[in-house]
Amino acid sequence: MHQEQPKNPLHGVKLEQIVTRLEEHYGWAELAQQININCFKKDPSVKSSLKFLRRTPWAREQVEQLYIKTFCTWPYNAGL
């Protein structure tokens, strides 16, 4: 059964959408400055980033937090 999550700004947003939107907004070079991970620095692509982020929870958390900070409006990012 589908449950609503009104307080979760990432509900219904796929990781691929997050990475794509951040890359379009910042570009790979700025993403690498914001989050220091090699998948954004060396031969970056959405595909390689997704592979890394799905296996690396701490990096995925940082990407999700940057997405929330950048695109989600109050009250979601009020405490960030």
Can you lay out the helices and strands and say which pair or pack?
Blueprint: H1 15-26, H2 28-34, H3 38-41, H4 46-55, H5 57-71
Helix pairs in contact: 1-4, 1-5, 4-5
Written account of the structure:
The protein has 80 residues and is mainly alpha-helical. The chain has one domain (15-71): Transcription Termination Factor Rho, Rna-binding Domain, Chain A, Domain 1, CATH 1.10.720.30. The protein is built from 5 helices and no strands. The longest helix is centred in the last third of the chain and has 15 residues, at 57-71. The protein is globular and about 35 Å long. The N and C termini lie far apart (31 Å).
Question: Could you name the key traits of this structure?
Answer:
Transcription Termination Factor Rho, Rna-binding Domain, Chain A, Domain 1, 5 helices, globular, DNA-binding_VF530-like, SAP_dom_sf, VF530 family protein
User: Roughly what is the average pLDDT, rounded to an integer?
Assistant: 87
Structural class: mainly alpha
Q: How many strands appear in the DSSP assignment?
A: 0
What oligomeric arrangement do these chains adopt? single chain
Number of helices: 5
Strand content: under 5%
Q: For the CA atoms, what is the radius of gyration?
A: 13 Å
Question: What's the helical proportion of residues?
Answer: 55-70%
The CATH class is identified as: Mainly Alpha
Protein name: VF530 family protein
Organism: Pseudoalteromonas qingdaonensis
Pfam families: VF530 (PF09905)
